[in-house]
Amino acid sequence: MGQTRSLASDAWRDLRRNPIAIISAVIIVLLVLMALWPSLFTDADPYACDLSRSLQPPSSEAWFGYNLQGCNIYARTIYGAKASLQVGLYSVIMVAVIAAVLGMLAGYYGGWADAVIARVTDIVLGIPLLLGAIVILSSVTLTGVWPVVLALGLLGWTSPARIVRSSVISAKGQDYVQAARMLGADNRRIMIRHITPNAMAPVIVVLTIALGSFISVEATLSFLGIGLKGGEISWGADIADATGRVRNALGPVLFPSTFLALTVLAFIMLGDAVREAFDPKLR
Fold first, then answer.
1. Backbone torsions φ then ψ of 263, nearest 5 degrees
2. How far is CA 58 from CA 63, 72, 77, 157, 181, in A?
3. pTM
């Protein structure tokens, strides 16, 4: 008899055969390399700007040309991946922690805990993510990625928390949970060892797509001038700086916009591929 494969192994096999998943993964790996080791892609200084080179066309020294301030667009595009991926990744980690804790408590214990968490979720869910982030960031003076991460994390956990709650409610009635309880396992052990591994699969899909959404929101906030501050290089900020001269020079807008679109699209496509791999009905 052949060995029975688990859902995770079947999903991994399907992902390896899915061309969309492979292309998305390759793009994401390149973006991660750009964020961690930008010197692999360029030795130019993204902060070295010379007004005498303002809006010069692409050349061997600057593959994407120069922006209005005379900065190397290619170098700034490469270095801009770091902040975007940091915001997306840290925000997703924060959202995952909040959603896992609140969703687990609401789904496992039910009763008044479920009612209170549900009302808090409804309140936060009624706040538009972009508008809420604008309000929060407009009231703080901190710089760097952490204010943006905090704003997105505090406002973006509601949908994942609801999914965790539904998964926990479904999982806690399974036979393996009842068996663990009969063997003397306490609530903490049951939640961590038995329910969490089986309830988090649907959330991984949502968080993968949310990562791309958070990167898009960060770019929008930086475009509006209230996102990343303190000299951080951001695709959104570079797009905003170039929009006024788009008729004279398309490159300063085109290249960071293209990298931003590819990044968001890669995470969304990977999330869809993971969803199809974990859902037997979609195979």
1. -65, -50
2. 5, 9, 14, 42, 67
3. 0.86
